[in-house]
# Entry
Amino acid sequence: MTYCVAMRLKEGLVMLSDTRTNAGVDHIATFTKMHVCEVPGERVICVLSAGNLAVTQSVIQHVTEGPSTEAGQPSETLLNVPTMFRAAELVGDAIGQVFRTHGEAMKAQDVRFDVNMLVGGQIKGKPMRLFQVYSAGNFIEASEDTPYLQIGEHKYGKPILDRAAHYDTDPNDAIKLALVSMDSTIRSNLTVGPPVDLLVYRRDTFKVGLRRRIGEDDPYFRGIREQWSKALRDAYRAIPRPDWAQ
Amino acid sequence: MTYCVAMRLKEGLVMLSDTRTNAGVDHIATFTKMHVCEVPGERVICVLSAGNLAVTQSVIQHVTEGPSTEAGQPSETLLNVPTMFRAAELVGDAIGQVFRTHGEAMKAQDVRFDVNMLVGGQIKGKPMRLFQVYSAGNFIEASEDTPYLQIGEHKYGKPILDRAAHYDTDPNDAIKLALVSMDSTIRSNLTVGPPVDLLVYRRDTFKVGLRRRIGEDDPYFRGIREQWSKALRDAYRAIPRPDWAQ
# Structure
């Protein structure tokens, strides 16, 4: 399983993904689910992926290097798409291509064709956007009302986002929110695990603002985990018992 | 959908269920999912149910009034089973009976045979126990290590239980925990909704200690919801920003 969360805020994008993959409980590995295309000064596009690893790796291959077309023919990739909308379309098209290639054989083997991607970024002269692309290749976009999108094992980490993630949240606070949301997920679901990959992009900068791999022993992440657990326990203790109890 | 949570603690049982049922988003209704069999001074058995309403109502009918056997033949029900283990078996057997009666026709209509039940209580002279019974009629039991069980839409409300529910938690504190867990679920999932039904049973009392329907406007529940939201937001604000950010 996987957990990825992305927020499109007034001041920038914050994207976070775990790295655990599993095929059964005895086949666990670490793969990054964050893929960044950067042309400094011109574009940053970050893709987070969830689902069957063979599918997601194929899709990433298609959208970063292009499909294996005839030699010399230039491919459309995330490095040259003209808009973020076209970037989301390209990811959706690549999912469709992989489905046409492997979907039937996967079905014959009872393997679900299962893929979800978050595509966020900005291209010079265009707005910063964030999309979620589904297995069918169609997609939705984050809005000011709902600034965050999640893929994978999303439920454990949703309550704090529902309460505290707003369009005008500062990206540095959104880092905290994303890490708290990730911590809740890691704690309640074994198939989501550290290290986690973080990317922060600030609007109209056209370069990666921060990219960091955060391991289990990272002092800040460990601090968040301890403080958050303590805060939850303290908060529940601080609630008075019902006067109708006893 | 549904959310039910039950805790078997050193001092007693705390069981809580929502009341929302839905067949599609435009067919929403309120049904209790809590069914209590009490023989004061002798036994209390409480069943919480999740899944297809036709199935769960049939199962409850079977275990409270007995199957429609020949007139005069006494039925085995939750009111006369000799042990809690037998109570869980009886619920499992009833699920099997309903499956044999309706399973095939439901499958023909593409309706999932989907049922999960929590069965908790105590019978005079026997230990207090809590079981979760699955669609197949098999079941597991809560332990001192894992004192709580959940059915239905369980993920949103799990993080606080993972952190704060212990075998030696006082039942009055467990009421708070259960309501916080329920609130997180209600807030993040529209198919789980108030009012909620609460039962508290204190070990070796053989009578219902507290049974209460708690509506959206219940001042205590509203207080919990507000305090909990505020506490989460405050806790996240209190976490310092990472010194590597910016």
The mean pLDDT of chain B is 93. The first strand of chain B starts at residue 3 and ends at 8. DSSP finds five helices and twelve strands in chain B.
